[in-house]
Structures are given as structure tokens and as C-alpha cells.
Amino acid sequence: QVQLVESGGGLVQPGGSLRLSCAASGSDFSIYSMGWYRQAPGKQRELVATIRGGIRNYADFVKGRFTISRDSAKNTVYLQMNSLKPEDTAVYYCNLVRLPTMSHYWGQGTQVTVSS
Question: Which segments of the chain have a pLDDT < 70?
């Protein structure tokens, strides 16, 4: 089993920055990819960014503003969010895809609110 614990959400003004963290723990697992998704009220969950090895993938609406990174030694993934907009307001979920089963694991979610 894999557990994901997120931190770093909160309230920020438009144009501000936040950094999300997600630490994975468990016994004897290998990671295919880690990433971040978000879900705004009344909307479906959508991909924000993923990282697999050195390959980063971003949704178009965050390109140039968000940066995903990973500390493999700590099994931790980060999401640096800059130039935040009100439309970035959502619950952000950490995702891990495990090898060899390609099973998906999710964190509990962390609220990000962008408002003046």
C-alpha cells in the first residue's frame, strides 16, 4: 500500500505564489510517475502536471506559471505555483502511479484559494 500526504495549500492573492508538497510512503514500491490534479467546484478533476523520470508534462493552462519537481530520495513531489489566478482555485490532489501494476494512488487533497 502507498500513502500520500499533501501540504502547502492555502489562501493567496492573485499574482501570488504557493508551493505544494506531496510525500509518498509505504513498503516496497516503485514509482512510474507522480503528479498533480485539481478539481474545482462543479467541475471534473483535471490534470495539472506530471513527472516521470526527467520528463515533465503540463496542462496548457499552467505552462509558464507552474513547475513540477521531484526529490526521488524522499519520494516527494512538489508543485511551485506562481502568478496564481482566481481560476486556479481548486482542491489539488497528488497522484502516484505505481510499478509494475500501474495502480493509481491519491492524496487527500489540499485546498488552494486565489482571491483578493
Answer: none
Residues 89, 113 contacting (CB under 8 angstroms): yes
Cα 18 from chain centroid (whole Å)? 12
| Whether residue 41 has a cis bond before it, omega within 30° of 0 | no
- Which among 14, 72, 84 has a CA at the least distance from the CA of 48? 84
- What confidence tens digit (pLDDT) does each residue in 66-94 have? 999 999 999 999 999 999 999 999 999 99
Strand 103-106 and strand 110-114: the pairing is unpaired
Q: Which of 28, 23, 42, 38 is nearest to 84 (CA)?
A: 38
Of the candidates 90, 85, 76, 55, which has an alpha carbon nearest to the alpha carbon of residue 4?
Answer: 76
Find cell 502536471 and name the residue: 49
